[in-house]
């Protein structure tokens, strides 16, 4: 069990009964005073914040999101209520705006800045994610009848329907937090060669090949089972993709070559289960490889290759960028990537160097022909 945060005077532990639940009437009449959430995480159970309404919401959302997303949402809620120090029923729009200001405040006396943009405070994307978590919470509480409105505005400068709790008919205004859309980083061919050359085992080469040539996410690589590998079809079955979606994707031969060598020589015979990628040495030998283990492998290879960047997601971005540059249709890339919306896939149009230049030169050639015509 892991406990994050500590209770302070005013947190009414009487809200939670001995069995961890609270009656609806008790929740409706509680909440006077301030409290500090206490995030409790136990293996195999839903995180708890010590408040019956927040814990009820976390139990509800646990069936809709992946475990890592659930933990992130629980932490976002802990951060918010640790700042406002109010029960959910008392939160107002003013509290939400004050929270945004607090998140933008300099950290550690202003001596810490982000290397990416040199700004202080949290990144706009982090603040926007936390506001999305809050908005979902208060939508749920409104539907349950515990709040008369959602205090998280959709935007500024518009009459947003969420104040009435309907969630309909909103007019678009200025966003609460502007998040610039940045192109993801990809690896050049030379960087790919350096990285793959720095890998030490066939297991590591197979994992990198799945991300670099198949576009799988880190969690999808680590969740792969032996029965999910279709050697004859040269495809792998992703059973638990983002949002719980499944897909069958082709992968280049380089993956199957590395996989065959890994299974024949490196993979321990006494492996705990049928996960493809397991720990090779140490006390955890034979157990499924973790996300931290894969990150450590990439960090070591990146250092040996002399690279400053090469994360799991950058390998995935590199895969789809190269496929688009080779002429693969956006709809096919969407299916390969497991994107719910093709709008997410469109970013690879801008990452592929030749596409924009080609479209521009074609258009300019037409304009030049028009300019050259006689009146």
From TrEMBL:
Keyword terms of this UniProt record: DNA recombination, DNA-binding
Domain Tyr recombinase: 182-361
Core-binding (CB) domain segment(s): 48-142
UniProt KW Transcription keyword: no
Gene Ontology molecular function terms on file: DNA binding
Keyword match Membrane: no
SUPFAM superfamilies, per the entry: DNA breaking-rejoining enzymes
GO biological process: DNA integration; DNA recombination
Entry-linked Pfam families: Phage_integrase
Region of interest: Disordered: 158-180
Family note: Belongs to the 'phage' integrase family.
Record-given protein name: Transposase
């Amino acid at each position: 069990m892991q406990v994050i945060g500590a209770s302070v005077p005013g947190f009414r532990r009487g809200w939670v009964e001995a069995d961890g639940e609270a009656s609806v009437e008790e929740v409706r009449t509680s909440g006077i005073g301030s409290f500090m959430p206490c995030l409790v995480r136990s293996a195999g159970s839903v995180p708890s914040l010590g408040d019956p309404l927040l814990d009820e919401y976390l139990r509800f959302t646990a069936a809709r999101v992946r475990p890592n997303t659930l933990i992130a949402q629980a932490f976002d809620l802990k951060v918010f209520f640790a700042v406002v120090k109010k029960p959910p029923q008392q939160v107002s729009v003013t509290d939400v705006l004050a929270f945004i200001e607090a998140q933008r405040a300099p950290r550690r006396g202003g001596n810490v800045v982000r290397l990416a943009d040199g700004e202080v405070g949290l990144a706009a994307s982090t603040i926007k994610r936390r506001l999305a978590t809050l908005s979902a919470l208060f939508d749920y509480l409104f539907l349950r009848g515990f709040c008369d409105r959602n205090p998280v505005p959709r935007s500024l400068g518009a009459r947003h329907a969420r104040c009435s709790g309907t969630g309909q008919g909103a007019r678009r205004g200025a966003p609460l937090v502007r998040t610039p859309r940045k192109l993801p980083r990809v690896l050049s061919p030379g960087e790919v060669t350096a990285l793959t050359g720095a890998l030490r085992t066939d297991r590591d080469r197979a994992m990198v090949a799945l991300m670099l040539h198949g576009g799988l996410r880190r969690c999808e690589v680590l969740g792969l089972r032996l029965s999910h590998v279709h050697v004859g079809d040269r495809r792998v079955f992703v059973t638990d993709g983002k949002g719980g979606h499944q897909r069958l994707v082709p992968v280049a031969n380089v993956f199957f070559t590395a996989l065959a060598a890994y299974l024949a020589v490196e993979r321990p015979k006494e492996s705990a289960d049928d996960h493809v990628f397991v720990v090779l040495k140490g006390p955890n030998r034979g157990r499924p490889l973790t996300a931290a283990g894969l990150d450590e492998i990439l960090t070591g290879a990146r250092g040996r290759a002399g690279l400053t960047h090469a994360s799991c997601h950058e390998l995935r971005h590199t895969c789809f960028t190269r496929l688009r540059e080779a002429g693969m249709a956006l709809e096919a890339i969407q299916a390969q990537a497991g994107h719910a919306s093709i709008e997410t896939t469109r970013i690879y149009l801008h990452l592929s160097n030749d596409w924009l230049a080609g479209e521009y030169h074609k258009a300019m050639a037409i304009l030049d022909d028009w300019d050259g015509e006689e009146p």
